[in-house]
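To make the argument concrete, we let one protein speak, a sequence paired with a row of structure tokens, as a model reads it:
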Amino acid sequence: MEALYLLVPFSIAIVFAAIWLFFRMSDDGQFDDLVSPGWRILQDDDKAPPSSAASEIPLKDDAVSH
């Protein structure tokens, strides 16, 4: 019975924290668009990735790369 004096207020505090977190994330726009990120991964990229500058520099004949 004594455990209820601790568990009931603790449970109520957890519920209020969860409600507060939900409304805070809702105000920040966390739940605004749930569909686009899933479709964005399926679309192809239109542009080729930029080439790095290191690959454009020719290696010298006497240089040995390991």
Notes: Residues 1-27 form one domain.
